[in-house]
Every structure is written in C-alpha cells, then in structure tokens.
Fold these 2 entries.
Entry 1:
Amino acid sequence: MPHVLIVDDEPNTRAALAEIVAAEGFTTAVAGDLREARIQIVRQAPDAVLTDLKLPDGSGMDLFQDLDPKLAVEVILITGHASVESAVAALRLGAADYLVKPINIQRLKAILDRIPRAGDLKAEIGSLRDELRRFGRFGRMLGNSAAMQQLYDQIGKVAPTEATVLLIGESGTGKELAAQTIHELSLRRKQPFLPVNCGAISPNLIESEMFGHERGSFTGADRQHKGYFERAHGGTLFLDEITEMPIELQVKLLRVLESGLFMRVGTNREIETDVRVIAATNRNPMEAVADGKLRADLYHRLNVFPLDLPPLRERGKDVELIAQDFLEQLNTSHHGKKTFAPEVLGSLSAHRWPGNVRELKNYVQRAYIMASDDVISASVVPLQMSPNAPVSESVITISVGTSLADADRHLIFATLEQCGGVKKRAAEVLGISLKTLYNRLEEYAAAGRSPEAALAGDDLPVK
C-alpha cells in the first residue's frame, strides 16, 4: 500500500488531510515541521509528500534534498494565494503539483488518484524509455542528435510532474509529437490527450469550443456542448499556436489555469476541471507579448517549463534517420521495398529544410510516389532549393524605429513576392503555419495595407 507523508503546522489541517488520504487507500504519517518530517522519512520512505510551503522551521521545498531521487517521490505543495509564485518555482524543481488554501477536496482526490499504486510502475516506464532511446526513439519522437538528447532529458524530467509546459519552435519541428510524448510519459497517460490549434478556430467560436455552451445560449446552439476543457478532464490539453488565441479569451484561459474553474457560454454555473495544459508557439513569445498577441500574465503562467525544439537543419544525421523511418512507413503501408540511393541521403542532410520535419515528410512521400523502381535516385524529385542557401539572396531594408508589426508585415510581403505568391511555400520559409499566414494577410487587408496580390494566388482555401 502506498505511503503519504503529510507536513503541516496546523493540527486540524493535518488530521483532516490524513483522514482524506487514508480514505483514498494510502497509509499516512504526519509531521508539524521539517524536523518531524525528516524523522518520518527515515522511518518509512514515502511514495508522496503533501507539505505546506511555509513551516515553522523553514520551507516545504527544503524536503527535496531529503528525498531519494531514485524513488521518484511525488511532492505536492500546499500554499496560500500570496505564495503561488513560490509554488510555480517548486514545480520547476520537480514538485508534482500544488494546492491553494482552502484546499479543494475534489482536486486533492484527483491528484492522489494519479499516484501509482504499484511501486515498480515508474521503474518499468523508465526502463522501456531507456531501451527505446538507444535506438533514437523517445516516445513518439525520433532522433539521435545531441540537441534531441538534451530535449529528451528535459521531457523525461518534466513529464511525470504537473508543470505547465511551453513548447517553442519553428513550424514543422514536431511540437505536437513532443506534447504527446509528455502526456504518454505522465501519470495522465490513460486519460484523454486533446490537441487544439488555436489559429484554426474561428474567433467567434473559440470560446464555445474551449469552454462549451448551453442550449439556446446563442443562435444555432440547439444542444448543450462540452468544450475542450471539459472533455480533457483528467488528461492533457495541448494548445497549439497559443499566440493566435484572441486576447480577450486569454484572460479566461488564465483564470482556468489558476483556479481550475470555468463556465460554459450561457451559464453562470462554475465547472471544475483537472487538466494539464501544454502550450506551443512558433513565434518568439516575448516578441508576441510586445506585439500584443500574448498577454504577459498568461505568458508567465504558461512559461513554467519552457522547451525549445531544435530545427531540423541543426540535427545533423537525424535527417537521414527520419527520412528512412518515413520510407519504412510507406513501404509497410504499400507493401513496397523501396530504398534511397546513397547520394540522396547525402543531399537530404545538406538541405536546410525551412519547413523542418513536415517538409521532409512531404518530400519522402513525393519521392516514393514518383520512383518507378525500388531505388529512389536524386533525379526522381530534385530538391527545390540549393543545399546551403536560404530561399533567396534578396534583402529588405527596415529603418531603425520601425515597429515590430510593420517589420513583420514587410517581411511577409517580401517573402510572398520571392515565392511567387505561393502562400504555402512562403509560410514554410517564414516558419509559420499556413493558417497563421492567411490570418495576417486578412488583418493587413482589413487595415488597407495589403496589396491585392497578397490575397490572390494559386493556393487552395485553408480548412
């Protein structure tokens, strides 16, 4: 039976917590300060520690140094409203979660429910992860480069915790795969994983999609609808392109993150949710804050554990490894036996891949379709860009004092012109999604700052 140590200087709080924890199937020990807690840790190593942040002889965070890291003890901090910043700092040190006083009993039970009942569960997960990592795989991710090994180390540390993660990387670097890997290595892995592209939802519908709505709350609402936060209860919600979320909705998102409560559109009744949020952006988040695309307070709440995903051009031989994996998947699906000619693999490694892994996947699929025999040669689908040069040698001049928004607009128009008006290609070069590019162009058109050619072109509508 798993064992929980409860540390709090208030006797009534200790007794109440011990009763709740015992009812959930744990043995318990209690302590009123750090000295007593250390004695209890020596007597019986806990599977989890539930500790107040402020204790008579120090901070609850001081107990981290008394716990054996090999045992992967879950530490849950208890804090007052004024100490939430300290609790977030504790999450970065490895705490699993934190509770705000007065303690929400349902939230406490949800946290306890995630603690493994079998002592060898984490060791089993770690062993499997290490075995796959030797083959260049980590969860759903693939790569052996030093940059990816560093990323794997960071994911391995943050995944078992409840810390909010902010994924930062160019378009096509695999942010959703990273989010899925974090979820699958967490204690929430048996619960839902819901990915949401904030830039692909109409601004008029995004609040309803996030939080749900009641029947009759607006025209066309002919039934009750559960939003993403309600459907992801107990699991992980992945918010991609977070900087594309309307600024007024970011206020409500911040409240959910801080309180765990939200309201469906059309009602005043609060609903409790237990969701871990992983957010992602292909923009520099500080620039997004400066541009007014991301609230500063939301950014700091999401930025508990930031992870930078390296672009494909910085991953060396990973390009060949990933290309071979895509080819094997196609061979399996189509019962084929195609292979790359040696010169193809060399050219793939030298290419810059502005569209990153997404662009590489598309290239492999085109080459597979076009190859008439079992050996895919370099002439089947020539790479569209020279190996070591960017898309263009063109230069644009921006005067000192130009606003970031205007500089952004000039760069988008120049890239569009260089790409012949092909928006998909321009989006890849700029490192943004096609939907994001369309949103920017629509904003410029509405402001009367977009040339007609920018909204014309040969692309199909984005769905």
Entry 2:
Amino acid sequence: MSESFLLQLTLLIPLLALAGIQLTARRENVREAVSLIAASALFAVVTQLYQPMLDGHTIAVHWLDILPGLALAFRVEPLGLLFALVASFLWIITTVYAIGYMRGHGEKNQTRFFSLFAVSIGAVMGIAFAENLFTLFIFYEVLTLCTYPLVTHAGTDKARQGGRTYLGILLGTSVGFFLLAIIATWLLAGTLSFQPGGVFLPDTSAALLSVLLVFFVFGVGKAAIMPFHRWLPAAMVAPTPVSALLHAVAVVKAGVFVLLKVCLLIFGFETLRSIPATNWLLYLAAASILLASIIALRQQNLKKRLAYSTVSQLGYITLGALLATSAGMTGSALHIVMHAFGKITLFFCAGAILVAAHKTEINEMRGLGRQMPVTMTAFLVASLCIIGIPPTGGTWSKWYLMLGTFEAEQWVLMGLLMVSSLLSIAYLLPIPLRAFFTNNNPGAVTAEGAVAIKEAPLPSLIALSITAAGCIYLLLFPDAFYQLIKAGI
C-alpha cells in the first residue's frame, strides 16, 4: 500500500464512516461499532505515516488545480502528522465516552451526533495535511459549519443563541481577516504553499507584513485570542462530548495548529523577529492568558470555568509560536498534545458528574470524591497536566515555553507565565481537593453509613481513565511527539 494512498485514506475514512453511520442509524449498537471501527482504522493509517515521515519520505497528493498556483493538495509534514495523531486517537476515546454519555443522559439525535463527529474529524485531517493555505482554508470552514449543529444539539433557545455566537464569530473572523490575509499572501509571495523558513522575500515591507500577521492572528478565530474568544464559552451549551470535541480533538486545536503553521511555514522565525507587530501580539497573547485565568477563577459553573481555562491555555500556544524560537515552538507544539489529553479528561469528568450526580456547579461538588473516586482522581491528574507539574506531561510543554521566553529574553512574559500557572492552580486544584477532603455531600452515604459509589456509565469511565493515564504516560514517554516536532522546526 503506497504512502500517498495512505494519505488519501485519512481523508476518506471519515466519509466512509459517515455513510456507515447513516446506513445503520436504526441499529444503535451497529452504528456505534461503525464509529469505533472507523476511528481505530484512521488512527492505524495515521500511525503508518509516522516512520516514513521521520525517514524523510515525501508523501503528497495533488487532487485538483483551481487556478495556476492554486491547488487542492495535501502533504504530510511533521506538525500536521502530530495533530493528526492526537485527533485520530482521541476520536476513538471520545466515541467510547460518547456511547456511555449519550445513552446515560438520554440524548436525542444520536445518529446526527456521530455523523457530524465523523465529518469533523475528516475536516481535521484536511487541515492537518493541507499542502497550502487555500486547501487549509476550505477544510477550516468545513469544520466550522459541521460543528455548528453539534453546538445547537439541544435545540433550546439557549443552544441556538450559543450557536449564533459560535458561527458569527468564527465565520466573521475567517472571512473578515483570515481570507484577506490569504489573498494578500498570494499577491505578495506568489504562492500559498507551506515552505520551511517562510514564503516572503527579505525585501518585503515590514509594515505590510505586520498588518498581515495581525490579520492571520485575528483571522484564526478558533485559536480564541481575545477579544475573539466569546464563541468558546457560548458553545458550552452543547453536550459534553461536543465540548470535548471543541476543546481537545478538533476545533480549538485546529486554530492554534493553523497559527503554528503560519508562524513557522508562512512567515518563518527570521521574518517574525523582524516585524514590529510580533512584539505587541505577544503581549496580547499574554493578556489573554492572564485575563482568561482571572475570569475562570470567578466561574461557579464547571464547564464555563473549563472553557475560560481553555482560552488561557490557547494563549500559551499562541505566545510560544510568536516567540519565534526553537524552544518556544517546541513548547507550543507539545502543549497541543498535553492540553488535548488534560482538557479532554476534565470535560469527560464534567460530563460524568452531570450524568451520575446531576451536578454542574462547583460549590455542589464537595464530598463528591467519595461517591465518584475514579472520576475525581482523573480530574486531579488532568488538572496537574493543565497546570504543568509532575507526574504529568504538561510539565514538558510548560518547561519549553518558559525556556522559549528565556531564549527570546522576554522576562516580563516569563513572569506572567509563572503567575498564570499559579492562577491555574487556584481555579483547578480546589475542585478535586474539596471533593475528596470535605464531606458536605449527604447523598454519598447510605442509611447504613457506607459510601454510596455511583460512577458514570462504564464506557465513559473507561474513556476518562485512559486519557488520565495518557497524561501520566506523556511525562514518561514524550519522545515520539518530540521527534516529530524537532523534525518540523
């Protein structure tokens, strides 16, 4: 089986999954088996691209010429493969979780959910392996449109309002800024293909490049840089598996992944360091980190606190990319992986708490650790991963981000990252600690005085245990991802 065929399979498997899910809609066990088989097949195909990529093989597919120099084309490169590996693996785990959650919570329109999830993963593969900005933009927009019905899944007025905010901001930024930046890049550089070191000539106006960089950063609304972040908290009206998709598997990761590719393969480090806009965009990313952390600290609804935590953590990735140093880019790319495992675990736990204990507010979760020990232990592990301390993989990404600020001699930003880490301790750790070390939850004790264990459905419990274990595994064995990142920088 040729490597180019494997690349095309990564795009076709989600579409075949969509067809299979629709054909088996009336038989839910078969429908969900189709989702799991497709997700497993996709991950297997993506992993087969890993070694050829490291061996220096060129793996590319050219589908269609739209105009001279404007093509629908795909190519495997290290950062794209990193993103595809994470997304395809987490598709498997999220499907397992969703089976337990959707049944346990009695959600309607489950076939639509699994169908659109498959389309979303297909869009992610298109973004990950896009050879140029034109191809990337098409799949970027497909991802926005196919996730909108997932955000409005509940069909309530609140869900529709959240969906309007979601769609309005993401389409508005992509058409108003991102598309214009792509057109300007084509006119200035004569190409939209991603190239090591960037595509712009050395004599290109620094002022013009500054404007272009601002348009890219604001145009990639999925990266949730302030002030274009409101869609993310608004989308929390969606079911928890959708929140996991938005925060860990697809949407926000697509946003920061695009920014990494733009910084590395459209501008290049030398160009980024030479233009005036880079410095103030760094401080804008820093402001997003700090302000979102403060807002998260004030939220009593668990999913909203996690949503603002995501805005803050995405700021870390954006900041690392804009530092234009090897360590900063390494930290950003690693944080895509570490945040994916940590945040998906936190949302899995939030959904498990809703299904098993019917609680959504943080002040209701005192003593819950005695009733849901597996869930709250996973929450604790994932919190440590987001904070960036052992025994979790988040330690590595935060270390390289700090090293990036050192390399760039950005001492203020280094201090701000430290403050933000302290804030993340303040808004995450009290939740599991109070769950285990307080006893204000009378429902946790039976009439005989024993603790009443009531966890989420088994598939959901298995999924959150796997991702929590992944947080620890990534501390011990980060090398597979690190090798990819070093090959791409």
